[in-house]
Amino acid sequence: MKRATQQNLDFDYLTGLAKTNPSEFERLRQNAIDAYILTLPHDRQDRMRRLQWRIDQVRSRHSPMGACVRLSGMMWDHLLGPQGLLGLLHSSDQTVDRCEKAEIIPFPQNLPR
Fold first, then answer.
1. By the 8 A CB rule, do 55 and 68 touch?
2. Element (H, E) at 102
3. What Cα–Cα distance (Å) separates residue 98 from each residue in 46, 92, 110?
4. What is the pLDDT of residues 15-25, one digit of tens each?
5. Which of 97, 80, 101 is nearest to 89 (CA)?
6. Contacts of 80 (CB under 8 A, 6+ apart)
7. H, E, C per residue of 3-70
8. Are 47 and 56 in contact (CB under 8 A)?
9. pLDDT (tens digit, 9 = 90+) per residue, 61-94?
10. How many CB atoms are closer than 10 A to CB 35?
11. pTM to 2 decimals?
12. Which residues have a Cβ under 8 Å from the Cβ of 70 and sit 6 or more positions away?
């Protein structure tokens, strides 16, 4: 079996490791997640850590299949819910209305380049 690295997470290796050495698998999983979060802009890292905490709580309280179903539901809520992507796209008309009422500040015509 190949060794998994953060650059090459080998599925077969990780599957075998999860069966034979769950604690090592969990360590590698957590390291990969932490390494990914550190690649994000600093202002998004805290939000992603909180999301990962929620995911870990669901995983710890349910069977693997139950956690999968619940996490899938969370993703759909974030896509289709009022605060999700689709909800934000549908509310864009309201944003345009608010922008039309904004004060427009004139800029000088001859700015140096």
1. no
2. none
3. 30, 10, 29
4. 999 999 999 99
5. 80
6. 86, 87
7. CCCCCCCCHHHHHHHHHHCHHHHHHHHHHHHHHHHHHCCHHHHHHHHHHHHHHHHHHHHCCHHHHHHH
8. no
9. 999 999 999 999 999 988 887 777 887 777 765 5
10. 11
11. 0.64
12. 58, 62
Identify the burial level of 92 via C-beta atoms within 10 angstroms of its C-beta, where 0-12 means exposed, 13-18 middle and 19 or more buried: exposed
CA distance to 26, 39, 69, 99, 100, per residue, from 43 (Å): 26, 11, 30, 26, 30
| Two structure tokens written together for 95 | 């944003």
Q: Which of 32, 43, 23, 39 is nearest to 5 (CA)?
A: 32
Residue range 33-70, pLDDT digits in tens: 999 999 999 999 999 999 999 999 999 999 999 999 99
